[in-house]
Write a structure and sequence with these properties.
The chain is an alpha+beta fold and about 375 residues long. The chain has one domain (about 5-360): Chorismate synthase AroC (Chorismate synthase, AroC fold). The chain has 7 helices and 18 strands. It has helices spanning about 35-45, 105-115, 130-145, 175-180, 190-205, 230-240, 340-360; strands spanning about 5, 10-15, 20-25, 65-70, 70, 75, 80-85, 150-160, 160-165, 210-220, 245-250, 270, 275-280, 285-290, 290, 295-305, 315, 320-325. The strands form 6 sheets. The chain has a 5-stranded antiparallel beta sheet with strand order 1-2-3-7-4, covered by helices on one side. The protein is globular and about 70 Å long. Bound molecules: flavin mononucleotide (FMN) and the ligand C=C(O[C@@H]1CC(C(=O)O)=C[C@@H](OP(=O)(O)O)[C@H]1O)C(=O)O. The ligand C=C(O[C@@H]1CC(C(=O)O)=C[C@@H](OP(=O)(O)O)[C@H]1O)C(=O)O binds near residues 60 and 244. It is an enzyme of class 4 (lyase). Homotetramer. It comes from Fusibacter bizertensis. Keywords: Amino-acid biosynthesis, Aromatic amino acid biosynthesis, FAD, Flavoprotein, FMN, Lyase, NADP.
Length: about 375
């Protein structure tokens, strides 16, 4: 089982949810970057568990320790390694799950894949806890992209039956989006109450609820990506499906294209005031032929409802080989998307920086 990703900028994840620590090694970062610790802390805080009843009560500080790759406050260009210690572990909650694997979680496949040597505590290495170091790495990539005028914005687009507005309404990064970016939960203020109510209803019922996260990237140059195999969609999808509980990814109009006619989804080329080529609509989400076209890159991720619910579910006891009733114990997110926006943005930032280094050699004197 390998947990590494990337071409020019490579990320390796290590650790388990209830082990000593989790962390990552980031290989291929440009040298001389002074880390924006405020940005890193902001993104880590947006993902951190235990901050309200809308998320898992597991209380972690998510403090990171930098073990290598920094000298006198700047990246050396060598591998940057961090670790985050696990503190609030309630491993007893997972005793029963050694013989009754949770439907929809990774327990069964993890057990088979590691030939029985699986660590089931908190989902082991499959846990969303491993997204904390990803958010750390993503914040560094986000900082480097921002210095090149590239801005990534994300929000919770829908939760259950509540559907919010789309970032496709925003042609540019503006004050409203800057406010959204600063929230702990990236939800437009006018949608917050209805979305939180949807999560709370599921939580009180001992159930969980699915959601979608939408991201828009402003300021990308034309020309990132390659035709066929290394398309921007392909690279992003590869990274986005690494996020636990992501079961769908769509770019631009995505699956709604399938219900349209060509004449309804024209992205006609026009010139803006400064004579730059643009399109008058953005159905294609900023990508043509796998390559960025200079319009905002727009995509959505669909998150399934959390598998660990305290409602009774019938499933197999792998010891007795009989069906049994399972009520999952422990502390779980009623809606994983509440903490997922910084993770989705982190994956986008990592992929886009990787592409930028590959396509434009941005690593030199970044
Ligand atoms: C931010 C975040 C928090 C999550 N919290 C939980 C949780 O508390 N309980 C749970 O069962 N799954 C949670 N998940 C999802 C599981 O980690 C995921 O369903 C599991 O690893 C299996 O992977 P898959 O759903 O992609 O197949 C969370 C996912 C994310 C992104
Ligand atoms: C700890 C985090 O989230 C965890 C992700 C998770 C899962 O199954 O993915 C299950 C829960 O673990 P536990 O049962 O140990 O409380 C969450 O709390 C985190 O995101 O930092």
């Amino acid at each position: 089982m390998s947990s590494s990703f990337g071409k020019e900028l490579k990320i390796s994840l290590f650790g388990e949810s209830h082990g000593t620590a989790i962390g990552c090694v980031i290989d291929g970062l440009p040298p001389k970057i002074k880390l924006d610790l405020k940005l890193i802390e902001k993104r880590m805080l947006q993902r951190k568990p235990g901050q309200s009843k809308m998320t898992t009560p597991r209380a972690e500080t998510d403090q990171f320790e930098i073990l290598s790759g920094i000298f006198e406050g700047k990246t050396t260009g060598g591998p940057l390694c961090i670790q985050i210690r696990n503190a609030d572990r309630q491993s007893d909650d997972y005793e029963e799950l050694k013989k009754v694997f949770r439907p929809g979680h990774a327990d069964y496949v993890g057990y088979v894949k590691s030939m029985g040597a699986y660590d089931p505590r908190g989902g082991g290495h499959f846990s969303a806890r491993l997204t904390a170091p990803l958010v750390f790495a993503g914040a560094i990539a986000e900082q480097i992209l921002a210095e090149k005028g590239i801005k990534i914005v994300g929000h919770i687009k829908s939760i259950g039956q509540v559907n919010g507005k789309s970032l496709s309404e925003f042609a540019h990064f503006d004050e409203e989006l800057a406010d959204l970016d600063n929230q702990i939960y990236n939800i437009f203020p006018e949608e917050l109450e209805a979305m939180l109510a949807e999560v709370d209803e599921a939580r009180i019922a001992g159930d969980s609820v699915g959601a979608s996260v939408e991201v828009s990237v402003y300021g990308l140059p034309v020309g990132l990506g390659s035709p066929f195999f290394d398309t921007v969609e392909g690279k992003l999808a590869h990274a986005l499906f690494a996020i636990p509980a992501v079961k769908g990814v769509e770019f631009g109009d995505g699956f709604t294209f399938a219900h349209k006619r060509g004449s309804e989804v024209i992205d006609a080329f026009v010139l803006d005031h400064q004579g730059n080529v643009q399109t008058n609509a953005n159905h294609n989400g900023g990508i043509n032929g796998g390559i960025t076209n200079g319009m905002p890159l727009l995509f959505k991720c669909g998150f399934k409802p959390t598998a660990s619910i305290s409602m009774t579910q019938e499933t197999l006891n792998f010891n007795t080989k009989e069906m049994t009733n399972l009520k999952v114990k422990g502390r779980h997110d009623p809606c994983v998307a509440m903490r997922a926006v910084p993770i989705v943005k982190a994956m986008a930032a990592i992929v886009l920086l990787d592409l930028l280094i590959e396509n434009l050699g941005v690593g030199i004197n970044a």
